[in-house]
Amino acid sequence: MPETWENWNWSTNYPAYDEIRAYFDHVVKVLDVRKDCAFGTVVVGADFNPKSGRWHVTTEDGRQATAKYLIAATGFAAKRYIPEWPGIDKFRGVIHHSSFWPEEGVDVRGKRCAVIGTGASGVQVTQAWGPVAANLKVFQRTPNLAIPMRRRDLTIEEQEQLKRVYPQLFSLREKTFGGFCYDYSEKGAFEDNEKEQEEFLENIWKEGGFRYWVASYKDYLFDPRANRVVYDFWARKVRERIHDPATRDLLAPVEPRHPWGVKRPSLEVDYYEQFNRPTVELVDIKDNAIVGFTETGIQLADGTHHEVDVICVATGFDVSTGALVKMGLRSVDGSYLKDEWASTVHTYLGLTISGYPNLFHMYGAQAPTALCNGPTCVQVQGRWIVDAIKQMERRRIKSINPTAASSHAWKHRINELSDQTLFPTTRSTYMGGTIPGKPFEQLNYTGGVASYLQEIRAVLPDFRGFHIVKPE
């Protein structure tokens, strides 16, 4: 949609939240969609009436709506996760989950601070607080194998020139694994000698962004030996930035805790340098877990007590499924999605769910979601949904409902792709392994955006795998 970008320019290739929000406001204004939105509205129930062919949706404040089609664009990281730590409500200082961040920010100057968690939010907050806090303790269970962001300013001139080829770049993104304008090398790691490996990895390291993750050797997520080549280079680059030997071994161990890339790497600017500050301390909680909170701080299993004034709970999200199962979705058989997915996830194409006619979801389970550039995934799926609805209206179809058989076949496809990789070796968000009680299973389509696009488009002409209902 050229109208959303032709009169917009960015200040940098990685803008902060305020600039991103300004862009969202720009898009809302240009497309004139604010009048169609109900902000601050929580959906608590939705069920489909097969006779009328309509969804009935109920919100938390008692409002109701009906529609032929229901699209759940709930995102993959909308439901925050906070461990059930005893005493957390007794802490008398300032405490926020990273997704509950105050609009005015958090002033940590001269304060004793703690960051719990070293995922993407933990990395960002550590970089922000490290230079200004009186003392900062970062509580780490698993090291984040972060890679350079390479943030830089953008000129209006270069963006105006680039806009001439935006359509081609948008198309290119859908032909790659990760939905970016770059892709894996055509070579495997051992098609290069050691010198060539070093040169190749150095180049994608210098270019920055997610290139080291999804523009590396094509076999490193499949072959443990190739993966070790990628890990060892990463470890060398990071270890040379960390002064203290003990901290170095915790942040970038010589022996990997898990294969590189099977947990999503974060982008960083000066994350590792923060731990060279005398005021920043890394607290290893892998074998000495947080067992509770007191009025003044954090208690560990060995009895150690860390007194702090401000805490950032950067413990992440119940990804891919968390938000969708909280909507009160009820199937035509009377069962609830939260119960159906308690033991395992089933979708068809990562877009629809058997038993829920005319329900479409996007950027969620069993799609490329967490393994790709978000906007690319959303555009690929959004276009499919629009085309499906257009076809239904054109053919006067009342509803489509994926069959149980097609859902099981898609589940098999998800596992078939994943089992060829190193992903199942590690308890990660990709595998649902970071939330207690959540099934350990692949939640993403691991074949890449280009392959996914082909598979879902092949279904559209005849709605293969769907039960079709037409008006009587």
TrEMBL record:
GO terms for molecular function: flavin adenine dinucleotide binding; N,N-dimethylaniline monooxygenase activity; NADP binding. The keyword Transmembrane does not apply. Transmembrane segments: none annotated. Keywords: FAD, Flavoprotein, Monooxygenase, NADP, Oxidoreductase. Its cofactor is FAD. It holds the Pfam family FMO-like. InterPro entries: FAD-binding_Monooxygenases (IPR050775), FAD/NAD-bd_sf (IPR036188), Flavin_mOase-like (IPR020946). Belongs to the FAD-binding monooxygenase family. This is FAD/NAD(P)-binding domain-containing protein. It comes from Aspergillus terreus (strain NIH 2624 / FGSC A1156).
